[in-house]
Every structure is written in structure tokens, then in C-alpha cells.
Amino acid sequence: MRGVVFRGLEELAIETIGMQEWDELLETYAPQGRVYVSPTAYPDEELFALAQGVASKLDKPLTEVLAIFGQSLFGFLAKKHVGISSKFSSFEELVVSIDSVIHMEVKKLYDEPNLPSITTTIENDKTIILKYKSNRKLCFCAEGLLHGAAQHYNRVLRIEHPQCMHEGADHCVLILHLD
Ligand code: HEM
């Protein structure tokens, strides 16, 4: 996973558990002297171990921490890549463009990024069906990113997750209900 994602986790960790505890996690789970540089790729296992470490320190399940992380990551990524995120005037427009525009632009900026496959179908003006597939199974993080995007556009969003890769499915199905 790219350094930019680790930096997003670091920002959230410093806010929630504090710098000292974050440094302790780095000492335990990252190679000595590790500094995360946005465009560089680092092992996924390192991100998962650090996220699990944050979850343990907060005494929350990993899935919950990944969702909170995703939510703050949206703002972090959107700020870092204003040129991409400012293209969309509504939540709906952004969501249907994740694969075809946002992550496509990411592919131009980063050398061989590891991105999920996301497809969307607009059911009606209040419902979007999103299919998520990735060998990282970061669907809870995706839910958080979607909540972050909804917050950005001042929308109230509820997500149903009736089919999940963590339960053996080939891809996750997220049903996005808008107010
Ligand atoms: C609601 C909107 C978005 C969703 C649901 C989403 C979903 C995801 C997920 C779940 C991942 C983790 C990788 C995986 O699952 O395999 C990811 C990675 C990433 N996304 Fe997005 N994303 C969104 C918006 C954005 C935006 C706005 C940007 C920046 C302009 C962005 C840039 C990236 C980057 C740089 C990575 C890491 C790629 C790598 O490590 O190689 N995403 N995205």
C-alpha cells in the first residue's frame, strides 16, 4: 500500500491515541527508522499490523477502526489530490466515478498502484448499488471512505452490506441509501 495511506493512518492515530503510542506501534510493527513517503509502496501486512495496533490501543474491533480510518482517509486523499476530488459537484457524481475517473487518475500519478475494482449502478435517486472487489478485502475501509465522501457533500448516508468477501463471497455488495 502507498505511503499516502500510511500517512492517513498516522494522522488518525496521532489524533486518537497520541504520538507516543503511535511511535510505540512503529517500533513494534515497522522496520527501524521507517518514514512513509506518499508515492512509495510499503507492505500491506505493515498497514494491517499498525491498524490492528491502533484498534487494540483504542479497545475497538479492527473493522470499526478501519471504517473510522476510511472516513478520515477520504478527507486526507481529497485534500492531497484536490485536482481529482474537485472534479465532482455531488456525492453521486463522485461515487459513480471512483473506478473510471478517480482511481484511473491515481494510476497516472502512482507507479502500478494496487487498487480495488469498484462498479456502481444507480437504482434510483436515493439508492446506489456498489460492488467492491480486492484481494485486500478492505470493504470496511471502503464504507468509511464513502461516509467521508457523504460528509464532504453534507449528505446523510446509510450503508447496507448484504454480501461480503469476509464471508466467502467473490465480491462485496454495498447498498448506499441517501436521504
Ligand atoms: C468514496 C470514494 C473512494 C472509495 C470508496 C475508495 C476506495 C479505495 C479502497 C478500498 C482502497 C484500498 C485498496 C483496496 O481495497 O484494495 C483505495 C486505495 C487508494 N485510493 Fe481510493 N477510494 C475512494 C476515493 C479516493 C480518492 C478521492 C483518491 C485520491 C484522489 C483515492 C486514491 C487512492 C489511493 C492513492 C489508494 C492507494 C493505492 C495503493 O496503495 O497502491 N481514492 N481506494
From TrEMBL:
Single annotated GO MF: heme binding
Gene3D superfamilies: H-NOX domain
Family matches, as InterPro entries: H-NOX_domain_sf, Heme_NO-bd, NO_sig/Golgi_transp_ligand-bd, V4R
Signal sequence range: none
Superkingdom as given in the UniProt entry: Bacteria
Annotated ranges, domain 4-vinyl reductase 4VR: 118-178
Protein name per UniProt: 4-vinyl reductase 4VR domain-containing protein
Organism: Pseudoalteromonas peptidolytica F12-50-A1
